[in-house]
Each structure stands twice: as C-alpha cells, then as structure tokens.
C-alpha cells in the first residue's frame, strides 16, 4: 500500500474511534447498595448491546436521595424501599411518570460462616435479642437505611424492638452491615437474601416471614431534568428479559 494511502487509512481509523467515543453516552445510576453485583453485570451487558456506559454509585437509598437533593449528578435513581422514592417524588427530584417497581427481596438473619449458630425457623416469637447473646446485631441504620427500617418494623410487629434496639449496630448501608458479619465483629446481622448470597463468609440463619414487615420493593425512576435518550434506554434495558435474567440469578424477585 502506498504511504499516502496508509496514512489516510490510519487517520480514518482514528477518526472512527474518536467519533464512536464521542457518540457514546454515559448513564449515571444512583442505586441501592444491595444491587451492586447485579447492576454491575447488567451495566456490562448494556454497554455491549448499546455502546453506552452505565456509571453507578452504590450506597444506602437514603444517602443517595440526599446526594441528589444536594445536586449530585445522577440520571437514574433506584431505591431499596418505597419511602425514599416517595420522598424523591414529593420533593420533585424524580420524574414520577417514569417510576416503576421492578424487584423484590427477602430479609434474612445471618451469622459468620464459621458460627456455631444453627439454622432456625424464624417466626415473630423468635427471641432475636437472646440469639445475639452479649453481642450486637449488624444491619442498616434503623432510622434511615431501608434494610434497617425493615428490620425495625419486623421487630416492632413482633413486640421485640425495645429489647433489640440496644443491640443494633447500625451501618451506613446493607453492604457495610454485611462486612461487619463477614469480619466476625458481630455474631449476627440482618441483610437482604441477595447480599447473603454473594458472600461465602456468612451463612443464613433464618428468613423473616414477609408478614413481619412491608414488602421489600425496588422502584426505579429518572431523576428530574435528566430525561435523556440514553437514560430512558437504560430503564428499558433493565426491564428486558436479559436483564431480568441477571436479577433472577442473583436471587431478586422480578416483577
């Protein structure tokens, strides 16, 4: 190939590369920490299918809602409960017309994998405080973090919150609570079933009956003023059979 044609071909390749890069969009997703593994996998699939990129920030739904309220750049908000999505709607921080509930989960009691604690048939009569002994129970902050709110609700319905509350080690997110149990810093923890499933360092001791707390629901919505084609495309993609298959593989209930 003549030198001039070779140079022209190289310039063409460079131009094509940068043009494709310039056309690719980023979708900034603020999502509940319990979605970390599943959404990371879905983000890779989304990029492979569309060329656009999902950039995710994971934390407690309460923390993410506050960050968006304070101006943090996000296109999509995914909460682990209805409370914080309702907060976002009430404060006009998300577009309510784009809101939908996609996923569900279970609340479980966990212990370190090497714990002597046997699996139990957990009911409203199970004495959770006694199971913890002199130790504490890791979960999300029961005043703000969804997993902690669900646990508090379960204990209130069982008439046990007064006994359990002093033993609660409230963490910033469900994954932070999981880490406390993984490291053996506490004998018990309360997390979602999907979080327990991704860790070989913990075991499920019991599953809370769903009648003990409100349904665990994950609503999705576009952040107000962030109605881009890429963001809408992402919301469509998470409802696709391919994405639903990923959620199911990680143990989520899919609507």
Automatic annotation (TrEMBL):
| GO MF | metal ion binding; molybdate ion binding; tungstate binding
Query: Coiled coil: which residue ranges?
Result: none
Q: Where does molybdate bind?
A: 34, 61, 174, 192
Annotated keywords: Metal-binding, Molybdenum, Signal
Note the Gene3D superfamilies from the entry: Periplasmic binding protein-like II
Listed name of the protein: Molybdate-binding periplasmic protein
| Gene name per UniProt | modA
Tell me any Pfam family this protein matches: SBP_bac_11
| Family membership | Belongs to the bacterial solute-binding protein ModA family.
Range of residues in the leader sequence: 1-24
The terms describing its cellular component in GO are: outer membrane-bounded periplasmic space
The entry describes its oligomerization and partners as: The complex is composed of two ATP-binding proteins (ModC), two transmembrane proteins (ModB) and a solute-binding protein (ModA).
Asked if the record carries the keyword Signal, the reply is yes
A GO biological process of this protein is: molybdate ion transport
């Amino acid at each position: 190939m003549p030198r001039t044609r070779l140079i022209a071909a190289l310039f063409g390749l460079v131009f094509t590369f940068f043009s494709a890069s310039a056309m690719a969009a980023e979708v900034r997703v603020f999502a509940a920490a319990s979605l970390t593994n599943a959404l990371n996998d879905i983000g890779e699939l989304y990029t492979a299918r569309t060329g656009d990129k999902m950039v995710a920030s994971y934390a407690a739904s309460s923390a993410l809602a506050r960050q968006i309220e304070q101006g943090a750049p996000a296109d999509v908000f995914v909460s682990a409960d209805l409370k914080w999505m309702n907060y976002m709607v009430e404060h006009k921080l998300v577009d309510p017309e784009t809101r939908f509930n996609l996923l569900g989960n279970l609340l479980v009691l966990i212990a370190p994998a090497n714990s002597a604690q046997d699996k139990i048939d957990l009911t409203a009569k199970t004495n959770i405080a006694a199971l913890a002994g002199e130790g504490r129970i890791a979960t999300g902050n029961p005043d703000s973090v969804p997993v902690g709110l669900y646990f508090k609700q379960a204990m209130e319905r069982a008439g046990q919150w007064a006994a359990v509350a002093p033993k609660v080690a409230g963490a910033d997110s469900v994954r932070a609570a999981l880490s406390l149990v993984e490291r053996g810093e506490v004998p018990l923890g309360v997390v979602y079933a999907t979080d327990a499933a991704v860790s070989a360092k913990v075991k499920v001791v019991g599953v809370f009956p769903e009648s003990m707390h409100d349904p665990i629901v994950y609503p999705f919505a576009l952040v107000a003023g962030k109605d881009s084609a890429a963001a809408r495309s992402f919301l469509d993609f998470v409802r696709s059979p391919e994405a639903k298959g990923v959620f199911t593989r990680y143990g989520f209930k899919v609507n």
